[in-house]
Write a structure and sequence with these properties.
alpha+beta, Beta-Lactamase, His_kinase_dom, kinase, transmembrane, transferase
């Protein structure tokens, strides 16, 4: 684990905030210092230019220049004769050595811009900002010492650094406090998560911010997990019970055969129980796969629904009750897993045959943007209040199902699962409303092609 990862989230957020603040203030402070330097330099240039203009005006007026030349600021003025000698100076200015060498004067005249020089050739110290003007063969040198400006910038830098340091400390402390207050609900959620047991849930922070929504989402996730665990426990318990019944029957039959000898019906009874175990394990395996989307891959192909239903209903020829199929007037097609749809429709027909009195009918019709498959029987039907419950796993109704009729309690749940995977729906209603035996009608709707 790297060093930053070992820090707490609060520390990392504060460090990021301080670094961001330092970068922002550093860039802003650097820009501010540069602006101050340029502003002071422009002020010095303006002062030197004004002084040079004043001296130029005196020379142009044909009045004799006073000696010393009066100036109203700290500027140093030297007026050079055409031969390069110093004619007039301001108070305190050097009368022997000009502030610029001849080559520097020539460069300044050519550029028409003030130049900055280090006063190492005269009695002055520090840097000078020199403005050069020529008039009537005379050269006017006006130098402004930059020492005061440099001191001002230096003190400004010190004050800026002190201010930045104070702001970083104060804002760092404030950020530490604010981040801690913001993360307090997260810490409460963490402690609550450690203490969650069974039906307990995480505490909901006040307000409606992201932390509150996170807590609501986590509680919703815990509800789903609890529901999934409850379903898993019920499924395992029901599966164990369903598996135990045929095993108990087989054990009893074998124990009786061991004591009194095999009966003529022993093999038939054992095969019946084995078939029931096979159907139950197949159904359990299918439902287990349907609960794992990563393991379930629906093979999609174009299916002629009429041909599929014809093949399915032909399997029931010669059965306990006839199964009649009425096809649509024109071919109807769907995209899907043909094995899954055969299993779903087959389960509905098996259920209808198991409870029908005299007949089962299967019909196919177009319905909006899809197709509708109807499976009807003339049995006792299912009460309206129980029609949703029969789609729950291992559900049996006392007046409609029994283990003796071969049901596993998984047929209709498998139908809903398989049809749902095809983005379809299945509904139950009376086949003959108002009749003494209303029967049952199962309608399967699938999206068409």
């Amino acid at each position: 684990m790297s060093a930053p990862q070992r820090l707490t989230l609060r520390s990392r957020m504060v460090i990021i905030g301080i670094v961001g603040l330092l970068v922002t203030l550093g860039v802003g402070g650097f820009a501010l210092v540069k602006v101050l330097e340029v502003t002071l330099m422009n002020s010095a240039d303006a002062a030197a230019g004004n002084t040079a203009q004043d001296v130029k005006d005196l020379i142009d007026s044909d009045y004799e220049l006073p000696d010393p030349i009066p100036v109203g600021n700290s500027a140093i003025v030297q007026v050079l004769a055409p031969d390069g000698g110093i004619m007039r100076v301001s108070p305190g200015a050097d009368r022997l050595v000009p502030v610029l060498r001849p080559e520097q004067i020539e460069r300044a005249v050519q550029s028409a811009e003030p130049i900055t020089v280090k006063a190492d050739q005269s009695t002055y110290e520090g840097k000078l900002r020199v403005h050069v003007t020529e008039v009537n063969g005379y050269t006017i040198l006006v130098a402004v010492p930059l020492e005061d400006m440099q001191h001002s910038v230096h003190y400004f830098k010190i004050g800026l650094m002190v201010m930045v340091a104070s702001m970083v400390v104060l804002l760092g402390l404030a950020t530490w406090y604010v981040v801690g207050m913001s993360l307090r609900p997260v810490e409460s959620l963490r402690k609550g998560a450690e203490e969650v047991r069974g039906a307990e849930r995480l505490p909901l922070p006040k307000g409606s911010d992201e932390i509150h929504r996170l807590a609501v989402t986590l509680n919703s996730m815990l509800d789903r997990l609890e529901h999934a665990r409850a379903r898993q426990r019920a499924f395992v318990a029901d599966a164990a019970h369903e598996l135990r019944s045929p095993l108990a029957n087989m054990r009893t039959e074998l124990e009786v055969a061991a004591r009194i000898g095999p009966t003529p019906d022993l093999l038939e009874d054992l095969l019946s129980d084995v078939d029931r175990l096979g159907r139950l394990t197949d159904d359990l395996l299918l439902l287990a796969k349907s609960d794992d989307p990563d393991r379930l891959r629906r093979r999609s192909e174009r299916i002629d629904v009429g041909d599929m239903l014809t093949a399915i209903t032909q399997r029931y020829t010669g059965g306990r009750v006839p199964v009649e199929f009425t096809d649509a007037e024109s071919p109807l097609w769907v995209d899907g897993d043909v094995d899954g749809l055969r299993r779903a429709i087959g389960n509905l027909i098996d259920n209808a045959v198991r409870h029908a009195v005299s007949e089962v009918t299967v019909s196919l019709h177009p319905d909006g943007t899809g197709v509708r498959i109807s499976v009807c029987d003339d049995g006792e039907g299912i009460p309206e209040d129980d029609r949703d419950r029969v789609f729950e796993r291992f559900t049996r109704l006392d007046d409609a199902r029994s283990r003796d009729k071969g049901g596993t309690g998984l047929g209709l749940p498998i139908v809903r699962e398989l049809v749902g995977r095809h983005k379809g729906s299945v509904t139950l209603r009376d086949a003959r409303p108002g009749a003494r035996r209303p029967g049952l009608r199962a309608d399967v709707w699938l999206p068409g092609v």
